[in-house]
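Consider this record:
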Amino acid sequence: MSKSVSEVLDHLAGLTDLRSEMEERGIKGVPSSAHACVISNYVRQETGQTVSTVPGALYVREYLGEDHDYEIITYDLPLNVAAFANLFDDGAYPELER
């Protein structure tokens, strides 16, 4: 069963070593890519949701029905996750880049 976005963000907020979490789960990403950064890829893997990570926030596309209508839900990133995403974008974790 997929986890909720809130559950995943709460889990990440409780971690002191996000780099190790990403490595252990085989998560890689593209720096400065909202749709393909490590945080987006991690949340997508855990929830199955379409997500984008931007500075300080995570956007989730929630579909409303079969006609492809959707709404965007915004989640604030926990401070440690936002800091990790910024460091990743700045090239601090080349081992997590694809």
The chain has a mean pLDDT of 94. The beta strands are 50-54, 57-63, 70-76. The longest strand covers residues 57-63.
